[in-house]
Amino acid sequence: MNKSLEWFRSVKSLPSPPEQINNILDAIGSPSSIDYNIVEIIKYDPSMVLSVLKVANSPLYGYSAKISSLQQAADLLGTGTIKDIILRTPILERLALDQNKTSIDLKSLWLHCGLTAAISGSLASLIDGLEPEICFTAGLIHDAGLIALAAYHPQALETAFETSNTENMTLSDAEKKFFGFNSYNVSMTLITNWNFPESLSHLFKNDYNSGLYPKEFALVALAKLLSKIGVTPVVIILIRG
Fold first, then answer.
1. What's the angle, vertex CA 85, arms to CA 80 and CA 88, rounded to 5?
2. Contact yes or no for 63/57 (Cβ under 8 A)
3. Which of 24, 174, 222, 241 has the CB geometry, 3.0–4.6 Å to 164, for a possible disulfide?
4. 7 closest CA partner among 185, 217, 240, 177
5. Are the CB atoms for 147 and 20 separated by under 8 Å?
6. pTM of this structure
7. Structural domains present in the chain
8. What is the C-alpha separation between 214 and 192, in angstroms, rounded?
9. Per-residue pLDDT tens digits for 30-77
């Protein structure tokens, strides 16, 4: 595929599945909705959280590269601005129409991101020196690059999936073979271009071959594994006692 990694610098935001946006719009439009619940309403949607963090870290607010959690962003931006961001979130209509062109199950991907976030936050609460909110965010957005590829290049990503299966290689290696880069590199491009703080971007500056394993990086990697085998935050709480 003739697509440069630099192309992803032009990406302004990532879309969410139609049903996800509808559910959130219904929630914030309900007469019983309380403004301060806006964080709870969107906290498990990686695309919306990425959009909110992107705005919060823009030079406009004077906190560029300083906001690393949704709660921080909410305190800075206010409920009205966050609602405006939600209303501007692109809908994955294109991916919904091209669903047969990719092996990605959107509901499963969003569930995996949310579960990884919850496990990351729970694990961080057990370890001195780690901030649960930052680890939660890191777990939530860890597949930003995969979401970008699925949204904007679903057919090409499907070819990478097929290569992964037929040639018995990891999806990351198959992506690199097909694109010349992988979804991990796409994540790093987005995070850097959107002025995210070092507390988040350093997780994407490392890879599994670099030999660099900060606590947060190792924790999110563990959370990803635990989410795939069905461990839930409830189990972490029970372990913590």
1. 130
2. yes
3. 174
4. 185
5. no
6. 0.87
7. 9-240 (1.10.3210.10)
8. 19
9. 665 555 577 888 999 999 999 999 999 999 999 998 999 999 999 999
